[in-house]
Amino acid sequence: ELNEDVALYYDDLGRVLMAFGDDKEAVKNFSKAIKLDPNMAVAYLHRGELKVALGKEKPACKDFEVANELGNAEAKKMLELHCVAEEDAEESDDKKSEEKTQKKGKE
Questions:
Q1: Residue 90: pLDDT above 60?
Q2: Cα(first)–Cα(last) distance of the chain, in Å?
Q3: What does the CA dihedral 37, 42, 45, 50 come to, rounded to 10 degrees?
Q4: What is d(CA 44, CA 22) in angstroms, rounded to the nearest whole number?
Q5: Residue 27 · residue 47 · CB < 8 Å
Q6: Which residues in the chain belong to E strands, given as ranges?
Q7: CA 33, CA 8: separation in Å to the nearest integer?
Q8: Closest CA to 18 of 55, 52, 57, 46
Q9: Residue 88 clears pLDDT 60, i.e. is over it
Q10: Helix, strand, or coil here: 107?
Q11: 3-class secondary structure, 16
């Protein structure tokens, strides 16, 4: 239980640091919370939100996936908002590449 309490402290500290714009230290604190309590879904969510704000959507999506698997409802929304569209865009790009390759083969 002590690890859970300390993990909550680091998560809270991370949110405060994030609010004050100290993103680097905020990420470190969210990561410390996760290390102490790997089942702390909200720490993954907060770290993912910060990564989105920093333009690092792929790593953010990994955090959202873990938070979602741990049962965090907000993480599911973040996955749909930031990650499903990204996957769809990647699939679309793959299909376009395949179509170009097929067209070249027919010429």
A1: no
A2: 67
A3: -90
A4: 18
A5: yes
A6: none
A7: 7
A8: 46
A9: no
A10: coil
A11: helix
Q: What number of residues does the chain have?
A: 107
Q: What are the residues whose beta carbons fall under 8 Å from the beta carbon of 57, sequence distance 6 or more?
A: 51, 82, 83, 86
How is residue 65 written in tokens? Answer: 């996936």
CA dist 14 and 20 (Å) reads 10
Residue 91 has pLDDT above 60, yes or no: no
The angle formed by the CA atoms of residues 7, 11 and 13, to the nearest 5 degrees, is 115
The pTM (predicted TM-score) of the whole model is 0.78
42-83 residue pLDDT tens: 999 999 999 999 999 999 999 999 999 999 999 999 999 999
Using one digit for the tens of pLDDT, what is the confidence trace for 9-23?
999 999 999 999 999
Model pLDDT, residue 3:
87
